[in-house]
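Have a close read of this protein, sequence plus structure tokens, and explain what the tokens say about the fold. Thanks in advance:
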Amino acid sequence: MAFGPFLLLALLEGLVSAAVLALMALGLSLVFGVMRVVNVAHGQFFMLGAVVAWFVAGAVPGAAFGWTLALVVAPLVVAGVAALADRLVLKRLGYDPEATIVATIGLLYILQQAALSLFGPDARPVQAPFEWRIQLPWFGYSGYKLFVVAAAVVILIAVWRLMTRSRAGLVMRATQVDRETAQAFGINVDRVYALTFALGAGLAAVAAVLIVPISQAHYLMGGDPLLLSFIVVIIGGLGSLRGTVVAALVIGLSDGMISMFFSPTLAKIIATLMVAMVLIWRPQGLFGARA
């Protein structure tokens, strides 16, 4: 097979990674943008979404029905856990930036060890809702992977419309700009924060349900997505939805091509170097606002 088909395969794989990474990083970016909280436990919400998807998909007959039910149930369960964590932990800390970092590190280990105890140490597969392959002239490619890209695009557009065209998005943006003024106008800031934290975790869970038929559910699977999500939001600009999507495309596509032609380790090294360059020459990120 010539160079062209390898390049096309790398681009397709990178596009799938970018789609899932955009959903994951968008949740992290929303939480920071509205709440000014760096959620170190975000990767464990991703992991929890995959684990819940495995439980749900295995509990009902039929791969398509089980996966579809998991796509509904897993984000709701994870969002509920996140809202509870916000009420019991983050709210009591007054959303202090330093204290919440330590608290979310603790939450990371709690969720990870809970998954290890209930789910076990083994990786578990989740069957894709359909088995369909597109036959290209050079190779066959999974139709489900293309579905993941399309689903991620639809969800990203829905979140963008929520943030820019709805009253809920207006309230979230008002809280982001000035918490005290928002409270003065009767906005329940604590409720906004709880819903934002739940939405961010729910997006991570959606990303996990989409990717788990391609990979597998495992209690340690949240580490790499968390690292890449931080890279994306730093490059794109903390709190910037547009920057998050653009940076996810850059990181996902470059990761796919470099991993295909060189090595995954080199891809992570280059992504880290990109973060260093952004922090040196444009600390607010490509689309972030200056402080």
